[in-house]
Every structure is written in structure tokens, then in C-alpha cells.
Amino acid sequence: MKKTFLLTALSFLSLLALSSAAQARTFAEIQKSGTIKIATEGAFKPFNYLDGKKLTGFEVDLANALAKNMNLKVEWVTKPFDSLLIGLDQNRYDFVIASHGINPERQKAVDFTDPHYCTGGMIVSQPGGPKKVADLTGKVVAVQVGTSYLDNVKKLPGVKEVKTYPKDPDAQQALMAGRAQAWVSDRFLALDAIKANAGKLEQGDMVFQERVAMATKKGNSTVVAALNSSLKKSYADGSYAKLSKQYFAQDIRCK
Ligand code: ARG
Fold this sequence. Notes:
alpha/beta
């Protein structure tokens, strides 16, 4: 009797939880409103960053182009990197574009579009510092929290300590100030940082590869489909290539 009551109470509670988890906006609902809400971090140059007060970067320009393709206006939201995917669940925006690598753990929580670029995590150090994965043995490595860099560096045997920072530029700063002997970040971002700090930073090996994609709330298939077809269009009509060359002097789409 007592047990039955408990079970009934429990299933009632779980029903409540389900019904309060409102549905994400479908693509048709977004079209009706005329504006798509997109979230990014704004601190991952050259992918998404603030130029003064202006949100810009490859991913910001690309998402703006995709929205234009879909005849939609854009409303941008910026949030700390490690809270971006959680916000999808709370229906705060329609999709996220913030250099998220597709991985099984994230796929449990959100749905990904086709990848919008292919990249990987690269070791960066000061001159004479660790360059190969094996050189990281006994070293302190700086990474941004919540990233695939953290997941992958944690798995390396022998690393003395992985220091995490809320923002990727803080992880870079830790390396430059000597609080860490290596920094692992996106290869294209790293190459830019090395160029901007000529003589102070050096490129090391790639630690892993990843395919980067946009994310929607789990189950929001109409938005995923619309983004995929818009992305395909940008591949076909040359607008993706133009943007990619502008930012990276090469086409970074997955081959
Ligand atoms: N590509 C890495 C990952 O999947 C890092 C992404 C960091 N993005 C950012 N906007 N800070 O976790």
C-alpha cells in the first residue's frame, strides 16, 4: 500500500517534470516569428569574438549568412562557454554555434548539425617547451573548462596537472606567464595566436581531431534539417569558401 503510493507519487512527479520541459521552437514557429535566436561565447577568436562591442568571427558571419539564406533575422545571445548547451535545454535560444566538437557525451544531451569545420586540439608552448604528446609528461597543461581539450588532455598518461580556465584566452595567458608549460586549444586559433605572438609561442603536435558542428535542443529535427540545408547551400554557392578564406586563408570545411 505504502509502496504503491510512493510509486504513484513518483510517476506523477516525473510526469510533472516532463510537462514542464517545454518543447523547443520548431523551424516553422521560428519562420512565423521571423527571427532566429543564436547563442555563442564571444571569446574564441577568430571563430566567435567581440571586436570592441561588435560580435564577429567566422562562426558569427557564417551563422548570419545561414540565417539570411533562410530569410530570417538574427538575435544573438552570448554566454559563458560551459553554459551554452544547458541553455538549449531551457529553450533560451534556437541553436548554438561555438566550436563544439561532436562527441558521444554531448550527443546524449543535444543534437548536432552536419559539421561546419574540421579541426583538432593542438599543443602550444614557449620556445623550447613541449611539442609532442610524450613531451607533456610531468608538465602542467592549461585548457579552457568544458572543452574537448580538457577531456583529451585528462586522458594523457603522465601529465602532471591540467589547469582549467573559464575562457580560452586565460589558458593562453597561463602559458605565456609561465603558470603552465603548454596550452592545448583549437589548431586554427592556435596558429593565429602563434602568429600574433611571434617568437614567444611555438606550435606543437595535434593531440586529437574533431568535427565541429552547431547544436540544437535534443529532438529539434526541423531546425537541424533547416541548418543542414542552409549549410549545404553555402558550400555550393561559394559563400562558405569566401568566408573561410577571409578568416583562415584556406577552406576549413570537412573533407
Ligand atoms: N572545440 C572545443 C570543444 O569542442 C572547444 C570549443 C570552445 N569554444 C569556445 N567558444 N570557447 O570543446
